[in-house]
Amino acid sequence: MGTTNAVGRDPLVILEEALIGGISHFQLREKGTAALTGKELKTFALACQKLCRRHRVPFIINDDVELACAIDADGVHVGQEDLDCASVQSRIGKDKILGVSVHSVEEAKRAVADGADYVGMGPVYGTRSKDDAKPPAGIVGIVAVKKAFPALSIVGIGGIKPENASAVYQAGAESVAVISSLAGAEDVRGQVNLFKEAYKGAPQL
Ligand code: TZP
Ligand code: MG
């Protein structure tokens, strides 16, 4: 989540609610024309990091390896179009979390070889949160990557809500990454809980 997803609310309040609700990880993904940059972005990132640390939740930064290194974030997430995963790994060090977006078994294979700790797969369902999102892929890609790399952590993303999360977990995703369904929820804590319920009710195949 970034500042533009907060739709009129304080993004740090949303983050704190989500942390109290029990999210396992947080990724700062600041995108778009209204995105914070430079010093402002760093200040916002530090505020997010402080909250995450208080709740002992890993704080991951999307794309911005320099910022991640500057503030000692817990990890970095990159897409296929971003910096290559192997060089990110060498810049952040092996003790940090490295996440990579993949869309196929082939891309997953490369991510694993480059040292990814988890792969993000999506959009599973339709999303309005990513301007350059590919068409929704459903759960088939997740099933295929899980079959090829049973021990790999897969994070499903894109249009995921408590009502459709079970299918994503069942397909082989260890977890789901969510923007609008949490940032737009009136009761953020309650919404996190609904995701946890969906997880419990969805034994992996
Ligand atoms: N990558 C694929 S879909 C997506 C990203 C970053 C956006 C997910 O946002 P939402 O609001 O949960 O659909
Ligand atoms: Mg990216």
The stretches of 5 or more residues where confidence is low (pLDDT under 50) are none
CATH architecture: Alpha-Beta Barrel
- Ligands in the structure? 4-methyl-5-hydroxyethylthiazole phosphate, magnesium ion
Query: Strand order, biggest sheet?
Result: 1-2-3-4-5-6-7
Radius of gyration: 16 Å
Order of helices and strands: HEHEHEHEHEHEHEHH
Beta-strand percent range: 5-15%
Q: Give the termini separation.
A: 30 Å
Helix content: 40-55%
Q: Biggest sheet, in brief?
A: 7 strands, parallel
Give the total of beta strands: 7
Assign an overall shape: globular
Number of helices: 9
Number of domains: 1
Pathway: Cofactor biosynthesis; thiamine diphosphate biosynthesis; thiamine phosphate from 4-amino-2-methyl-5-diphosphomethylpyrimidine and 4-methyl-5-(2-phosphoethyl)-thiazole: step 1/1
EC number: 2.5.1.3
Organism: Planococcus lenghuensis
GO molecular function: magnesium ion binding; thiamine-phosphate diphosphorylase activity
